[in-house]
Structure formats: structure tokens, C-alpha cells
Write a structure and sequence with these properties.
Layout lengths: L5 E6 L2 E6 L10 H16 L5 E6 L10 H9 L6 H15 L5 E5 L2 E3 L1 H7 L3 E5 L3 E3 L13 H9 L1 H9 L4 E2 H7 L4 E3 L4 H13 L3 H15 L3 H15 L3 H11 L7
Parallel strand pairs: 2-3, 3-4, 4-6, 5-7, 6-9
Antiparallel strand pairs: 1-2, 7-8
Helix pairs in contact: 1-3, 2-11, 3-10, 4-5, 5-6
GO molecular function: isomerase activity
Protein name: 2-(1,2-epoxy-1,2-dihydrophenyl)acetyl-CoA isomerase
Keywords: Isomerase
Length: 259
């Protein structure tokens, strides 16, 4: 895959997918969603690959959606297309339903779609200063990447409302308390820790892992596609509203939004 925004390395049965947009805080452009989905499917079909790591360059895992693209969508009155939000769901599904174990190595912030991307993985390794931030409410948006679906099942309805509506950060200790983080480690050791876990999994019964993931997906995500359709509908509608316009202007001008 020739894509400098997503770097791929396969070595010793471990595929590493690196988000490479450090200038933008590794925010995900609309083209990245399909590219990540295609990469995940290629790993699944590759018999050489037994485990997948998702990581990033720079200081942050992912700042979420690219707000500069939100601004363009507002100015051109294209808003956030229904099909683009559907792509976020296809990306998440390609991770959740992948036959191979997937590890997120999260350093710095994982915001919005970046948080959703991490939550789709089987294991999340976070640095001591890492922050998981829903982010969507601050953009005047309901959410995508299956984040509500996954978070609700992981931490319950009232905690999900608290973090989603109030945009309260989940820091590393809280991520461990909630059971979201497999491990919390010193910041500079996140990827090495993820690699060590990947090596352990790569030596394990990979066929059994595939069956386990399929059964767990059946239990956990019986209505994932239907939920993604709702995400796409409401994200598109919200992107046409004054709340979203104000949120984007406030973010780009580094001020608090006035809803």
C-alpha cells in the first residue's frame, strides 16, 4: 500500500499499522478510514500475519476527525456525508471482526474517532500520561466509529453518558479501573510493551483465537451495522446544525464554543 499517512510493517508474524500524520495530531482524514479497513482485511488474508498492532508517530495516538475537513465541509455545504460515517463503521468492523488479535498502542491523546479506533481493538496499552477523550460533544456531534456502542458495553450506560455528554477525560488510571486498558506503562515503553504482548500472542493457538473472536463478536456486536447506520444518519444531520458550525469555528480559533 503506497500511503505515507499509514505505514505498514510486517515482521515475525506481527503486522504494525502506524498512523503517520503527526502534523495534524494524527487526526484521521476521510481517506484514512477506508485505507485502514483495507489494511486490516489484507492482514486478515495474509497467512504470515498472526497479530496486529495499531500505533502512531508523534506525540498523540489520534486527535480524531480532521477539523480542517469539517471546516471545508461547512463552507461547501457538503457537511459530513452519510457515506463517510459509514466508512468509519466499516473500519471498526474490520478490526472487531478480524480473525487476528489487534493491539492498540496508545500514547498521548486518543480523541473522538481515535478513541473509537482504540476501543475496537482487543487489547489497549496506554502510557501513564495517555488520555482517552470522547470529544464529539465539543464538536456538536453525536459520535461515530462505534464509540458509544463499544463504550456502553464496556463501562455501562451511566458512565458512558458522563464521559460522552460532559466530554470527561478517561485518564490512564481510570482506563485501568474501568477495564479498558490491558496495561498502563511508562510513556516511552508503550510500543515495546505492545510488541511483547504481540509476540506472546503470535506464539499462541492462532486458530483458536480466530474462533474466540468470532464468538465474542457475535455476543458483543449483534447490531453493529444497524448502529453504524444510525451514527451515519445523526452525524450527517448534526453536521448541518449551528452547534457544529460554532464548535468548528471555536476549535480553529482556539476559544471555547458558545452553543
Amino acid at each position: 500500500m503506497e500511503n505515507q499517512e499509514l505505514l505498514i510493517n510486517i515482521e515475525n508474524s506481527i503486522a504494525t499499522l502506524t498512523i503517520n500524520r503527526p502534523k495534524y495530531g494524527n487526526a484521521l482524514s476521510k481517506d484514512n478510514y477506508r485505507a485502514i479497513m483495507e489494511a486490516m482485511k489484507s492482514f486478515e488474508d495474509n497467512e504470515e500475519v498472526r497479530v496486529i498492532i495499531i500505533t502512531s508517530t508523534g506525540d498523540n495516538f489520534s486527535a480524531g476527525g480532521d477539523v480542517t475537513q469539517f471546516k471545508v465541509a461547512i463552507e461547501t455545504k457538503t457537511h459530513i456525508p452519510y457515506d463517510t460515517v459509514r466508512e468509519t463503521g466499516y473500519m471498526i468492523e474490520a478490526i472487531i471482526k478480524n480473525k487476528k488479535p489487534v493491539i492498540a498502542a496508545v500514547e498521548g491523546f486518543a480523541v473522538g474517532a481515535g478513541f473509537g479506533l482504540a476501543m475496537a481493538c482487543d487489547f489497549i496499552i496506554v502510557g501513564e500520561s495517555s488520555r482517552l477523550i470522547p470529544g464529539f460533544s465539543n464538536m456538536g456531534l453525536p459520535g461515530d466509529t462505534g464509540l458509544i456502542y463499544r463504550l456502553y458495553r464496556a463501562i455501562g450506560s451511566f458512565r458512558t453518558r458522563r464521559h460522552l455528554m460532559l466530554n470527561e477525560t478517561i485518564n490512564a488510571p481510570l482506563a485501568k479501573e474501568y477495564g479498558l486498558a490491558y496495561d498502563v506503562v511508562p510513556d516511552q515503553t508503550v510500543y515495546p510493551t505492545a510488541l511483547k504482548l504481540a509476540q506472546k500472542l503470535a506464539q499462541g493457538p492462532y486458530i483458536a483465537y480466530a474462533y474466540q473472536k468470532e464468538m465474542m463478536a457475535t455476543i458483543e456486536y449483534p447490531a453493529l451495522d444497524e448502529f453504524n447506520q444510525l451514527e451515519a444518519k445523526y452525524m450527517h444531520e448534526a453536521s448541518k446544525q449551528a452547534n457544529h458550525f460554532e464548535a468548528v469555528e471555536a476549535f480553529l480559533n482556539k476559544r471555547q464554543p458558545n452553543f
